[in-house]
Amino acid sequence: MIIGITGGSGCGKTTLLNLIRDQGGLVLDCDAIYHHLLRTDPALTAAIGARFPGTVSGGTLDRKKLGNLVFSDEKALADLNRITHGAVKEYVLCKLPSNPSLAAIDAIALFEGGLAELCDVTVAVTAPAESRVRRLMARDGITEEYARSRIAAQHDESWFREKCDYVLENNGSAEDFHNISLAFFRQIGIMDP
User: Fold this and answer.
1) Pseudo-torsion of CA 84, 88, 89, 94, nearest 10°?
2) Half-sphere exposure of 127 toward its Cβ, with a 13 Å CA cutoff?
3) Could you tell me what percentage of the chain is helix, strand and coil, using 3-state DSSP and rounding each to the nearest 5?
4) pLDDT tens sequence across 88-128
5) Is residue 189 classed as helix, strand or coil in its secondary structure?
6) Which parts of 13-153 fold into alpha helices (H)?
7) Reported pTM
8) Residue 47: which residues within 8 A CB-CB, separation 6 or more?
9) Which helix (H) or strand (E) holds 167?
């Protein structure tokens, strides 16, 4: 079974990924894959630098500079996504065995990147905006303004609700969401009751 996990930044998707990993499942985190490709795929970095001059120096991408450009400009973000989605999907296809017993693809752009079509089930994780802002600031060491601009550049909760087979709401404590996630995995047959 391949589970597609999506939702905005700071919603708590990592909780689901950790549970799948604990069950011996393969976890493909597309954000981590993207960052890996930025370090190992000079063609990808060059393509980003060509479209966004001044964001790449010496083969290294300045992510905050790029973020400041794309999170406030829908066309720029669409251009970045066009450059990156194909590279990420190609990497996922190389790593994903045929008919895995359990695997998860975590991607904020699960549908836009063509990864949802690989999944048996899709699930969105949602959380209140203020909780997401606090999590992003703590996790990524970014300012409140930058965290809010990242969230504003992403789809709203209703978009994920319409697209996904299931929605898990992360609006309580970490322990609450862990328990919600366990119950969900039991419901879809990944874990024993």
Assistant:
1) 150
2) 25
3) 55, 15, 30
4) 999 999 999 988 999 999 998 999 999 999 999 999 999 99
5) coil
6) 13-22, 30-40, 42-51, 63-70, 74-95, 129-140, 144-152
7) 0.87
8) 83
9) strand 166-169
